[in-house]
Amino acid sequence: MDLSETSALTYEETVERPVYGYLLHNDEQRLEILEKCPNISAKELSITITNSWKSFSEVCLFIFYFMFHILTLTLFRKRKMNMPKEQKN
């Protein structure tokens, strides 16, 4: 297939990016911090979230990575269930 035959992928053809542990933490912390300090700058918010992530113990980080793998597996299974039979191989 040459470039002239290619077209943009549809939503169904794209692969969803997995959610990483840090992103889960980031989303949760962002909401929490913004409720407490609605006027915080984006830079300070980012620094606060990053420092919070760095302060976690290895056990906490393991839990975030475990959550990431569970989410990835769940999304993969859900996506595979919605595929036409001929694509499930």
TrEMBL record:
<keyword id="KW-0238">DNA-binding</keyword>
<keyword id="KW-0812">Transmembrane</keyword>
<feature type="DNA-binding region" description="HMG box">
    <location>
        <begin position="15"/>
        <end position="58"/>
    </location>
</feature>
<keyword id="KW-1133">Transmembrane helix</keyword>
<feature type="transmembrane region" description="Helical">
    <location>
        <begin position="55"/>
        <end position="76"/>
    </location>
</feature>
<dbReference type="GO" id="GO:0005634">
    <property type="term" value="C:nucleus"/>
</dbReference>
<keyword id="KW-0539">Nucleus</keyword>
<dbReference type="InterPro" id="IPR036910">
    <property type="entry name" value="HMG_box_dom_sf"/>
</dbReference>
<protein>
    <submittedName>
        <fullName>MATA-HMG</fullName>
    </submittedName>
</protein>
<dbReference type="InterPro" id="IPR009071">
    <property type="entry name" value="HMG_box_dom"/>
</dbReference>
<dbReference type="GO" id="GO:0003677">
    <property type="term" value="F:DNA binding"/>
</dbReference>
<feature type="domain" description="HMG box">
    <location>
        <begin position="15"/>
        <end position="58"/>
    </location>
</feature>
<keyword id="KW-0472">Membrane</keyword>
